[in-house]
Hints:
The chain has helices spanning about 10-20, 20-30, 35-40, 45-55, 60-75, 80-85, 90-95, 100-115, 130-135, 160-165, and strands spanning about 5-10, 120-125. The chain has about 170 residues and is mainly alpha-helical. The protein has a two-stranded antiparallel ribbon. Helix 2 (about 20-30) crosses helix 3 (about 35-40). The longest helix has 14 residues, at about 60-75. The radius of gyration is 17 Å and the shape is elongated.
Amino acid sequence: MPKSPRFVSHIATLRHTAGFTQRALAETVGVTENTIANWEKGSLDWLYKVAVLCELLDCVPIDLTQNFRSLREKQALTQLQLALEIEVTENTVANWEKGNFDWANKAVKLCQALNCQVDDLYDAIPVIKSDKEKAAAQPVKKTTKRSSLEKPQKPMFHWLHRLHGEKS
Length: 168
């Protein structure tokens, strides 16, 4: 798994739209109000792992909490291969398979409460390391302006391919 990107959180906007206070959302998800505040500031590495796991295992977050081992085996991945791919220990993967997957449950509860998908909660900004990568990431100047009323298209997981160094 590539280094976790920086995140732009959409949780506050989704929370307001759903009519939750930070305290009410925290109680619904089973976390502290401070945790919700940190998520809204972009502390979302755990959520990135859920998204990457769902991409690797071709599933949705609730599947992770119900049949993690069968999802891994379906993709013909050993515990070690999956652990190396997402930069955790093999023991961590084994614990997930035993049901110790609290943070995936939080992702499910958060998405249910806010009536959204995981990728609606944030935008990921890849961490750029080399000058070559910086040059490749420079925005292309557009010759036409987008209407201020036109909503930009939300990226799904196409950025994962760039983070892995693959061409999309």
